[in-house]
Fold Apple domain-containing protein.
Amino acid sequence: ASGTGSGTTTTTSAWWWTTQAKKATGTTSTTSAWWWTTSSTTPGATPDCTHTEENVDYWTSKTITKYGIEDVKSPGACRAKCKANADCGAFTWGAARGLPGITDVCWLKELGEKEVPIKHHKYGVVSGVTCPSNSSNATSSSNASSVSGSSNASSAHPAHSGHADKAPHSGHADEASTTTLVTSSTTTPLTTSSTTTLPWVAAGSGELYCFALMLPFGYEPKLLAMQYEQGVSLFACDEYAVYSNKSMEIAHGLASHVVPINLKCEFGGEFGTALNTAIFRAIWIKVVSEARFKLYKWSVKVDPDCVFLPNRLRHVLRSHTEGERGTYLNNCKFGMHGPIEVFSNKAVETLVNGWDHCDRHFRKLCSGDCWWGEDLFIDQCMKRVLDVQRDNEYKMLTEDHCDAPKGWKDCLNHTVVAFHPFKSSFDYQECLNNANMDVTSVQYFKQEQEHVMPPCRLLQRGAWN
């Protein structure tokens, strides 16, 4: 696969199952798999208010409907709801099928004076703007659902053979489609903020603040750069940051936040884990000192090699409320594991303010250092000392250290928020792609695996030595 510089088109190539998925659904779509594309973006013009754009998410200064309006059956109906709201100037509608929190959900967004929405390439969503009431070319909401030049609203309802974990300010994947979607070889480059000097994006939706700690060497910078370019994992949250002990440009427009600490740590203790509690204490102090997390209800610490789907988390969080001293999610029956950690706003402050108290408490209990990793320390600290509400949410994480089911590394479970670990770019991408397949494609893919699979595919999955 190849990608070109800013302002140009790209070419893509698909892997084996993409063709098979087309056969399973009977489609003649010419859409290539998106994940082998290196895409570039350039500033775009104001969107045409008489059309909608498929596979594009509009980012604006403010989202009016944080969780979206459910059971909106078409982009035209979503446009109508936007037009009926005096504050709404743009909208995004979930066209992807079979994804709770996405399918038939309509997000309304404000557009400030002379503001042009930032376009992000996101498969499975449809976006548009409303026409001014005095516009001569405004169309009624009943027929204003043309997608990427299509005159038929039904084309905005693709029965995808691969889907996305996406919402406003959320970027994800798709695979082959049963309709002719916009491919990377024909798509006009989308707009991003290419002159950003801050290493975060403040979207203002108030839901998820996500961050990662990155080693400035090894595989982590490359993994994070790939995630950033695709708008996935923490980069699909409402605001994000990457921390490291070295100032570096991870990707164009993405720089690390510097925390002057030594990131090397020993392995040991009862469970043979990384003894990184002191490191993450410094990271959490930095997070609190920057105070960006306060703008959002939930803060998420995610490891670079964790395949994290933020919109699934958004859906999960609807059933959780903040306790008096905050709330955090326990993601494993053995206790909270560190690849993904989720804390309410108040829980973050409680943790950082009470960290030293917990340290003294456990040193006395253990007659010295307890030799714990940061995840065990935080879990015990918040649960047993700081009295923070602990909600069990075992579908948060699937990983080999938490009694994962057989075959879990195919990432085909659509209820799981995060999978860990996937340290190579290929393995990470494969897991992400599989996680974003729709139910029909998953069933077909599993049937194919049970029968026959080309040798090259087996080799890619590490089945042969």
Remarks:
- The longest helix spans residues 345-366.
- The domain at 208-399 is CATH 3.90.550.50 (Spore Coat Polysaccharide Biosynthesis Protein SpsA; Chain A).
